[in-house]
Structures are given as structure tokens and as C-alpha cells.
């Protein structure tokens, strides 16, 4: 019976404002109704534990609070995380794609087809194409291109205006402004729709900024909202309006449509990208933002949560920041990495670079060529030195036509110096040629050997190694 006034109000709104307004009003009415239901007169209390007997965990908290254990509901942290789906924590919806992956080319084709139908005043066809394209947006396998989405929503707004549905047009135009804040009116379309287009932008500009929390924090996983990549380490993102598209990349690429009611949401949860997040992360302020979002997936706003791990107890109120320690831990808490997923990636990279070494240095041609080049280079260097000494003795004063008598004293006669010069020159030329051959052999060996790598005694192709490095990125 308590819901009856809200149902009546929804019907009144439906008759006066249409479906779009109802979609906005009903969540608010439902939220207010929840506050008036007797079962919600007092907040629920949950005990969140990990890796211990539920009865012991609840009893510990009951003793600390001087309450009856019957008033506390136990929640196993690991089980809760495993059961989580990508979701919006708050009032609204978060729908991950369950169909086939789409690409931007499909959306661009849809926009062109819809615009062509609109030019021929085929409004039903244009609207059908756009609605099908909106489904594709939520299934993109690549980051959204905001200008394409903005164009689709702009065209949808024009179609709604031509059909006389100003409220629907308002929502479409505002969605177009969300996707592309720099969007301007296209003069190729009738000007009758322009006032609604401008009013939708003005309302969006004047609306309050909402801080949407994220779990996990970008950096552990790549996240895009409306095609804009979020900075690594961002604990919240400021957004406006109801409709948004969220994308994230962990082992795969995901896309989802987000419909939210400003002021009533807490954040979005992407469990596939969370990795392992132990409950004792509550001792690390760096993890409080993520934990605040995740705790809202356990209870409703205002509910009490008591986290107990390693003998300690912390309290938290859903929808509010902060965790207060009630009972100090009785056991030593292990240290936490500030960025578990990112550090795991770094560990994988270090493992690959440490254990995988090029096979080139073991290639026979590389070894032989390197040896020949070193030996021949030494011989050529000695030949060059000897030739230089002999030439200096023979021609130290060549400009004046006088032999270098002082240096010829190093030789028995002029002829011996000349013979030494010829021998040393020959040694230099042969050594140089052999050096070139050695370098060529070593280069060939390096080229052949670079196609394989050794990892703990197992030979692996360069393509496989590249795939491993790509995966760790």
C-alpha cells in the first residue's frame, strides 16, 4: 500500500510528460519509497569477513559492539567478490554488452544511413537505424569516437522533433552534448529544432558535476568513459547527465551503457579487472576509494558494515567515505602492494626479460664471425703500425726531397725499410679484408639467431616471445 502514491504519481507524469520523464522520475520516487517502507526504518548491519569461520567473525564484532549476534549479517568477502557483475552502485542501470562485438565502421555506416533516411523524411526508418546503432555502441570492441556518437544522437533528436516528441528530442540532444561538448547546430537541418538543442545544452552546462567512483582505479585497468581515457590513479571521474558509455580493457575489451540518476549513485564496479583485493586492504588509505565503492555493493545507503580481519574490526557506513578502526588487529597484517595488477604486469615483464635471452650469441656463424673479425682486426692493426713506421722512415722529409736519415737508423739499409713497408701493407690489406668477412659472418649469425630465444632451456620463436610481451602489457 505504501507504493500506491508513487504509482499514481508515475501515471500522472506518464500522461503529461511521456516516457522520458517517467524514466527520470520513477527512480527518485522509488528511492523515497524505500525510505518509507517499515523494513527500512533502521539500517541493516553486516559483518564482512575473509578466510575465517562466520560464527567467530560475527561473535568478535558482536562483543566489540555489545550487540546481539542475531542483529548482524555475515558476508564472506571472497565469495561476494566472485559473485559480482559489472554494475552501477546506486540508482540507475549498467548494462554490459552480451551480443557480438561491433566496430566504429558499423556506427559510421549507420549514421550515414540514418541521415539519408532523414533527408528523405523517412523518420521511422531513420529512428529504427539509430536505435539499432545505439545497441552497437554498447558492444564496441574499440574505444568510442565521441563525434560519431554525438552525430547519431543529434540525428535522433532531429527525428524526435519532426515527430513532435520534444522530451525525447531533449534527451537525445543532451546525450549528443555529453558525447561531444563542442557540438554545434548543423545548419543543414530545419531551424525549428534548434531552440531545444540549445536549451538541452544550457541545462547540461548548468547541472551539477557528479563524482563517480571507480573500482578498480584506472591504472590497474584501462578505462574510458564516453570515449575519453581516464588518467591512471584517478579515484573518481566528474561527469554530467544521465547517459554514458563505459569501456574497459583487462584481459578482454568490454563496453557497457550507463544510465544514472545524478546525486543517487556511488560508483561503478568492474570486477573482472579487480584482481585479488584482500579485506585487509582497509588498512591502506590508497585502497579506501575502491573499498568504499565495493562496500556499497553489499548494503544500501546508510547500512552499517563492520570489516573484521586479522583480529581487528573497522566500521563503515555505506554511501559515506572513511573506515574507522574499532578494534586493533591482534595479528601482524602483511604489507599491501599499492597497485597489485600493475605490479603483476611488471613482474611478468621482468620474468620474461630475465629468463628469455636471445639465441643469437649461441649461433655458430655469429661466434665464428666474431672470432675472425677480432683476430683479423688485430693483425690489420699491427700491419698498419709497421707500415706507418716504415713509411715515416722512408719519407719523413719528402717535401724537401731528403730521406729521413734519422729514422733509417732503425733499419740496416734503405732497401730493408722498403721491403718491410710492402710486407706490412700486405698484412694490413689482408687483415682488413678478413675483418670485413668476419663482420659479415657475425651479422649473418646475428640475423639468423635473432629469430629464436631460449627460456630455461626451451627454444621459443620470436613471434611467441612478442606475444608474451604483448600479453603482459
Summarize the structure.
With 473 residues, this protein is of the alpha+beta class. It contains 15 helices and 15 strands.
Overview of this protein structure:
- The protein is flat.
- The longest helix has 36 residues, at 414-449.
- The chain has 4 domains: 1-41; 43-86 and 272-338; 94-269, no CATH class; 360-450.
- Strand 5 (222-225) and strand 6 form a beta hairpin.
- The protein contains 15 helices and 15 strands.
- The strands form 3 sheets. Strands 3, 4, 5, 6, 7, 8 and 9 form a 7-stranded mixed β-sheet that branches. A 5-stranded mixed β-sheet has the order 2-1-10-11-12. It has a 3-stranded antiparallel β-sheet with strand order 13-14-15.
- Helix 1 (4-17) runs antiparallel to helix 2 (19-36) and helix 6 (123-137) packs antiparallel against helix 7 (146-162).
- It is an alpha+beta fold and 473 residues long.
- The chain has helices at residues 4-17, 19-36, 54-65, 77-83, 104-119, 123-137, 146-162, 166-179, 194-206, 288-295, 340-355, 364-395, 405-408, 414-449, 462-472, and strands spanning 45-49, 73-76, 87-96, 210-215, 222-225, 228-229, 236-239, 243-249, 253-269, 304-309, 312-317, 324-327, 356-358, 452-455, 458-461.
Amino acid at each position: 500500500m505504501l507504493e500506491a502514491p508513487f504509482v499514481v504519481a508515475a501515471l500522472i507524469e506518464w500522461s503529461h510528460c511521456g516516457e522520458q520523464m517517467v524514466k527520470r522520475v520513477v527512480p527518485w520516487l522509488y528511492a523515497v519509497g524505500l525510505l518509507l517502507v517499515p523494513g527500512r526504518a533502521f539500517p541493516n548491519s553486516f559483518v564482512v569477513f575473509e578466510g575465517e569461520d562466520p560464527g567467530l567473525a560475527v561473535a568478535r564484532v558482536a562483543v566489540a559492539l555489545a550487540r546481539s549476534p542475531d542483529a548482524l549479517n555475515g558476508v564472506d568477502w571472497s565469495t561476494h567478490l566472485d559473485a559480482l557483475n559489472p554494475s552501477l552502485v546506486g540508482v540507475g542501470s549498467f548494462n554490459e554488452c552480451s551480443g557480438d562485438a561491433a566496430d566504429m565502421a558499423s556506427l559510421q555506416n549507420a549514421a550515414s544511413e540514418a541521415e539519408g533516411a532523414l533527408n528523405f523524411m523517412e523518420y521511422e526508418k531513420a529512428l529504427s537505424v539509430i536505435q539499432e546503432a545505439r545497441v552497437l555502441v554498447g558492444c564496441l570492441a574499440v574505444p568510442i569516437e565521441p563525434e560519431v556518437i554525438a552525430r547519431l544522437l543529434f540525428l535522433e533528436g532531429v527525428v524526435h522533433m519532426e515527430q513532435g516528441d520534444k522530451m525525447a528530442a531533449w534527451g537525445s540532444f543532451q546525450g549528443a552534448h555529453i558525447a561531444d561538448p563542442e557540438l554545434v547546430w548543423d545548419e543543414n537541418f530545419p531551424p525549428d529544432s534548434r531552440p531545444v538543442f540549445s536549451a538541452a545544452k544550457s541545462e547540461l552546462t548548468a547541472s551539477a558535476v557528479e563524482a563517480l567512483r571507480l573500482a578498480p582505479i584506472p591504472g590497474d585497468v584501462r578505462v574510458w568513459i564516453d570515449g575519453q581515457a581516464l588518467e591512471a590513479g584517478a579515484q573518481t571521474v566528474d561527469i554530467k547527465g544521465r547517459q554514458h558509455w563505459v569501456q574497459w580493457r583487462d584481459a578482454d575489451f568490454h563496453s557497457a551503457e550507463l544510465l544514472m540518476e545524478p546525486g543517487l549513485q556511488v560508483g561503478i564496479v568492474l570486477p573482472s579487472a579487480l584482481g585479488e583485493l584482500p579485506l585487509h586492504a582497509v588498512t591502506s588509505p590508497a585502497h579506501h576509494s575502491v573499498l568504499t565503492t565495493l562496500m556499497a555493493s553489499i548494503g544500501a545507503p546508510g547500512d552499517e558494515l563492520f570489516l573484521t580481519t586479522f583480529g581487528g574490526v573497522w566500521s563503515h557506513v555505506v554511501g559515506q567515505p572513511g573506515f574507522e578502526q574499532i578494534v586493533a588487529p591482534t595479528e601482524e597484517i602483511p604489507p599491501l602492494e599499492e597497485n597489485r595488477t600493475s605490479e603483476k604486469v611488471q613482474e611478468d615483464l621482468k620474468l620474461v626479460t630475465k629468463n628469455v635471452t636471445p639465441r643469437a650469441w649461441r649461433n655458430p656463424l655469429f661466434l665464428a664471425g666474431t672470432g675472425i673479425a677480432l683476430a683479423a682486426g688485430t693483425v690489420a692493426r699491427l700491419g698498419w703500425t709497421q707500415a706507418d713506421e716504415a713509411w715515416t722512415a722512408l719519407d719523413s722529409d719528402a717535401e724537401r726531397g731528403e730521406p729521413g736519415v734519422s729514422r733509417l737508423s732503425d733499419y740496416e739499409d734503405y732497401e730493408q725499410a722498403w721491403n718491410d713497408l710492402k710486407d706490412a701493407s700486405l698484412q694490413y690489406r689482408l687483415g682488413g679484408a678478413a675483418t670485413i668477412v668476419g663482420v659479415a659472418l657475425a651479422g649473418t649469425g646475428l640475423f639468423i639467431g635473432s629469430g629464436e630465444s631460449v627460456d630455461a632451456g626451451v627454444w621459443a620463436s620470436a613471434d611467441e616471445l612478442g606475444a608474451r610481451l604483448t600479453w603482459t602489457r
